[in-house]
Prior knowledge:
Elements: H1 3-13, H2 24-45, E1 47-48, E2 55-56, H3 58-68, H4 74-77, H5 80-88, H6 92-107, H7 126-130, H8 146-167, H9 174-181, H10 196-211, H11 217-227, H12 234-243, H13 263-266, H14 269-274, H15 279-290, H16 297-312, H17 318-326, H18 334-348, H19 352-362, H20 371-384, H21 389-399, H22 403-418, H23 425-428, E3 434-436, E4 444-446, H24 447-460
Antiparallel strand pairs: 1-2, 3-4
Amino acid sequence: MEAWLYERKLTDEAVPPELQEDNEGEWMSYVREGRASDNRLFKDWISAVPGSRAPCDVAIAAIQSMENRGYDVSEAEQYIEAGLRAAQEKDGGALQVITARINAALNRAPKKENNEYDRYTEYLDFAQVAAHVDFPDADEYDVDSQDFYDRIKAGWWGQLIGGCLGTQLEGYTTEKIRERFGEVRGYLRKPETYNDDITYELAYLDMFAKKGYAITSEDVACAWLELISDGYSAERTALENLRRGVMPPESGRLHNYFSDWIGAQMRTPIHGMLAPANPALAARLAADDSVVSHSNNGMLGGIFNAVMVSLAFTGKDMKTLLKRAVAMIPDDSEFYQVVDSTVKLCEECGDWESAWHICEEKYKKYNWIHAYPNAAAEIIALWYGNMDFEETCYIICMEGQDVDCTAAPVLNVLAVMLGFGALDEKWMTPIGDTILTTMRRMQRIGIEELIELTCDCVRRAVKPYSV
């Protein structure tokens, strides 16, 4: 039936109800919705990250991020003080106007002349990456083997351990972590699995179980809409775009000030696990997922972590793996300059802290949720961890930044390479056997169930698999 007929039928069949004297309750629903909108905006300006309680203000961070991308944000910066004052005073009406003016200023912000960001090629999809990168052929690897099960089990456990370690520390610097906690070599409290990092991977896996290697960006978008009710920064913008019918890759670009942040990078270990020893396929899966909410360097960060996990199934040496993964990033991208220069720095510095202090200074203009400082943190932890799980945990925790989003993929990569036997029970026992999430489905999932599902998805997918 045509749309107008549905609406005509609805109108023709509508019967006026008995009128009530007092309809205030119905009208107050508008007030409640307005207050909810204000409260959400207050959190955009002044809030704390769940878990670590680190201060966070995505409204100001949006301006910072656009400046990082080479835009002149001076008009938007004029509203920062007024916005902070309105947020502190809980003046929702004023804050609505101020935030709208900031967003309008960002949307029309001109590019700075000769800015650093535009000196590099902008990458928008996997096809563009594949045309520039000579991906190696897949290694022979038996996904029906016990070895595959063992490494998938190790990968998921490594990722869960990293997420639990990082959730307690994210958003702080090395100096402040050391002042407050000393040298962090274990959990600081009972581990919790509630975080947004794993929810996107679970949504992806749920769709992959249906589509296999034919999965598309739009499939991933639909999985998000079905399973994930809300997001943060780039993911929230993407969800808002998707609800308006803006599909990927546009959903990751349209008014998305956070498209170079860590959100794709945090969620792509799953693609490496689904494409063991096949980095080209892992890169394609990761890119198609990443562009739902990110673009360019954010997408390349997603590719980087997926490729590392894929290589870890047959890799024997972490430093060699890091160099191979860097070589699979287009060398005319800014993300390549970040990861390549960090590897070279590791070759020159005698210890992790010397290398990290240089990176902290180098990337001080970037938000702690941006892809760049966190990619550097990953490389340094894996390099100086020397394939020692305990030492790698220690380094990635002490580096700070977006620790749950770095520790989870770092420990996934390392655990896949080492195998499940390298993980001490002291890391796993406090977590238990069940993952709790905030998703619409899969609110509770057994860890063993997740391991089996991942293995089964790969084994049932069409083989031999390719890009």
